[in-house]
């Protein structure tokens, strides 16, 4: 008889039945925008860029809540590939290809990253630390997530633990 452990995504109907270490995508996105609000203030519109089938839609609920509370226009699109970039837009990006599309467009239009438009990318990587002076990231602590799950397996108890997030503010915001 095997044990079930849930990692990353939380399903409320399973609380108390299985151990879980999860990201609260809606809350993390909302709180990160509030935390970085002094930087976000220079933008007029925040655009969530992710493909529905792969990424958690709850992120957009967090953006929507922030936008409604603080008066920001917001939108949800699948990709930046064929969408013209405009001055004053902040993009929240799940797929790294969309960063490339924006950078190529911005070079053609002479738009400056971190001034004319901004990028917050989900999930930190070493490349994002150095690319164009640094890409701002919103990331959960994956190492801690693994350690917490390991602790739950050793304890053999049923617990639901929310993993913390961090907004790494860099040049792109």
Give the overall average pLDDT: 88
Largest sheet: 6 strands, mixed
What is the strand content?
A: 15-25%
Helix/strand/pairing category: alpha/beta
Order of helices and strands: EEHHEHEEHEHEHEE
Question: How far is the first residue's CA from the last residue's CA?
Answer: 49 Å
Radius of gyration: 18 Å
Relative helix content: 25-40%
Unreliable sequence segments: none
How is the largest sheet built, in terms of strand order? 4-3-5-6-7-9
Anisotropy-based shape: elongated
- Total strands: the figure is 9
Number of helices: 6
Describe what this molecule looks like in 3D:
This protein is an alpha/beta fold and 173 residues long. It contains six helices and nine strands; from the N terminus they run E-E-H-H-E-H-E-E-H-E-H-E-H-E-E. The protein has helices at 25-35, 37-40, 58-70, 96-109, 126-130, 142-155, and strands at 5-8, 19-22, 45-49, 73-77, 89-93, 117-122, 136-140, 160-162, 165-168. The strands form two sheets. Strands 4-3-5-6-7-9 form a six-stranded mixed sheet, sandwiched between helices. It has a three-stranded parallel sheet with strand order 1-2-8, with helices on one face. Strand 3 (45-49), helix 3 (58-70) and strand 4 (73-77) form a beta-alpha-beta unit. The mean pLDDT is 88.
């Amino acid at each position: 008889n095997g044990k079930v452990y849930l990692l990353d995504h939380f399903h409320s109907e399973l609380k108390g039945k299985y151990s879980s270490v999860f990201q609260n995508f809606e809350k993390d996105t909302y709180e990160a925008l509030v935390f970085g609000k002094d930087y976000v203030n220079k933008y007029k519109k925040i655009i969530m860029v992710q493909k529905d089938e792969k990424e958690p839609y709850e992120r957009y609920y967090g953006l929507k809540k922030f936008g409604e509370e603080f008066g920001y226009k917001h939108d949800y699109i699948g990709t930046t590939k064929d969408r013209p970039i405009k001055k004053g837009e902040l993009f929240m990006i799940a797929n790294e290809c969309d960063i490339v599309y924006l950078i190529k467009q911005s070079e053609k239009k002479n738009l400056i990253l971190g001034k004319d438009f901004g990028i917050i990318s989900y999930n930190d990587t070493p490349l994002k630390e150095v690319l164009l002076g640094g890409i701002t990231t919103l990331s959960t602590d994956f190492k801690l997530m693994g350690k917490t799950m390991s602790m739950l397996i050793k304890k053999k108890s049923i617990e639901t633990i929310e993993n913390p997030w961090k907004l790494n503010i860099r040049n792109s915001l």
